Amino acid sequence: MRQNRSFAFLIFFVIAGIGAALAYARYRVGDFLSAGWIGAVAFVIALIVVSAIQVADQWDKAVILRLGHFHSLRGPGLFFIIPVIDSIPYWIDTRVITTGFKAEKTLTKDTVPVDVDAVLFWKVLDPKKAALDVADYRSAISWASQTRIAGDDRDHRDSGGAALAGFWKGPGGGPTDDLHQ
């Protein structure tokens, strides 16, 4: 996932610039040692602040782990973490995502071979579960969907897709809970 770091780098250059200006002022007075210390301290502070500032896009949720344990979900927008103590192992996209499946060979009721292509539209409803309960949630969704489609296709060859329609739509017309839990 591409992360937007432009705001953090702007803050870095502002803090480093203020430190450089203060160091230059001390240097002009003739205090060379304190000028070097001021410049070095400003640079270190700028590095710490830039690593603490995070910005999540409108569709992203960041999973924050504090010393390896789940701490919170953050985003969208500006948020801060504690450098070294907090980490962001996952950025979860909460938009509707499409996944295409390659052709699967199957037989119709009258034993005519056909190739079946499919497209899955899915959305992460619980970013915490997607990040922490499954090792690779994108692959898990893909494999579970392919398995379900293949099973429905073999069981209902004469239904002409009615089994898939029932799978993707629940009683209220929305998606079933099979993929959202």
Structure characterization notes:
- It is a single chain.
- With 181 residues, the protein is an alpha+beta fold.
- It folds into two domains: 6-93, no CATH class; 97-168, no CATH class.
- Helix content is 43%, strand content 28%.
- The strands form three sheets. Strands 3-2-5 form a three-stranded antiparallel sheet.
- Strand 6 and strand 7 form a beta hairpin.
- Helix 1 (6-29) packs antiparallel against helix 2 (32-52).
- The longest helix has 24 residues, at 6-29.
Essential attributes:
disordered C terminus; two-stranded antiparallel ribbon; alpha+beta; 28% strand; 181 residues
Q: State the order of secondary-structure elements, H for helix, E for strand.
A: HHEEEEEEEHHH
Strand order of the largest sheet: 3-2-5
Q: How many individual helices?
A: 5
Largest sheet: 3 strands, antiparallel
Number of strands: 7
* Rounded Rg: 26 Å
Low-confidence parts: 156-171, 176-181
Overall pLDDT score:
82
Measured as a percent range, the helix fraction is: 40-55%
What is the approximate shape?
elongated
Please give the domain count: 2
Q: Roughly how many Å apart are the termini?
A: 24 Å
The SS-based structural class is alpha+beta
